[in-house]
Amino acid sequence: MELRQLRYFVAIVDHGSLSRAAGVLHVAQPALTQQLRQLEADLGAQLLHRSAQGVHSTDAGKVFYEHAQAILKQVADARSAVTQSARPSGTVTLGLPHSISAALALPLLEAARAHYPDITLQLTEELTGNLAEQLKSGRVNLAVLFDDGQLTPFVTTPLAEESLCFICRTDARWFPQRAEVTLQEALAATLILPGLQHGVRPRIEAVAHGAGLAPQDVIEINSIAILKSALMADMGATILPVAPVLPEVQRGLMRALAIHSPAISRTVVLCASRTLPLTNAATAISRLAAEVAGQLCAGDAWPGATLL
């Protein structure tokens, strides 16, 4: 197996066609086809379905594509680490959970462009469970995750402690004329929450269990956009930080109630792999992310977050 075969395979999948991939790679199509056949023979599996409409990954191909992407990124990172001068440069991929990107993404992008013009910062928005796997495999250089006691595979830098609130449509039936609710009251409502392995859900379940409580009626939605639509349809309420719904709260479409007895919060941390070294550029972005998070907390620009 050769690196060029990995590059060829990724290009074919990305472009959905052998002919288009050959044109982008500046490789004759028969040579590209031969390299693909050699790769499939080496792996002992068919990676692509070929048809008149183009090519599509088999199940084995989908698995191999993820690994090929990670390997090629690590090779690019290694080359960048060797060739970088004192001025950091190159590409850094940072993964953000859906519920954090509203607070952190734009300020970090602006700071990166101002302080490190030679660094291309790529932000990817994903579910936390997916981000952890991508960080382990090297598909992202850094990821913002939540400290649930399961972060031992990573080097972690605490960024902030973020309070969670009970959030519902402004005219919803839940707790009218109230500014705060107990955790027991919040858990008794119909709640729209991410799945058990993602986002705020593990933290909610852990705090509830510690208080001898449990959610009573849960609708699982793993998308902030769809979750907000469900809130606006008055299908239920949710427990989230304020940042993802701040525009709706400011426009009076939603309201956020503090939770007490006990309060509930989550620790936001920046994570890097323990086994894959960071490039100079990734190290610079890591430091910058911590600085930006601190500035947002100090300036009350990250609602509900306090600096750690």
TrEMBL record:
Keywords: Activator, DNA-binding, Transcription, Transcription regulation. Signal peptide: none annotated. GO terms for biological process: regulation of DNA-templated transcription initiation. Residues 1-58 form the HTH lysR-type domain. Coiled coil: none annotated. One of its GO terms (molecular function) is DNA-binding transcription factor activity. InterPro entries: LysR_HTH_N, LysR_subst-bd, WH-like_DNA-bd_sf, WH_DNA-bd_sf. Belongs to the LysR transcriptional regulatory family. This is LysR family transcriptional regulator.
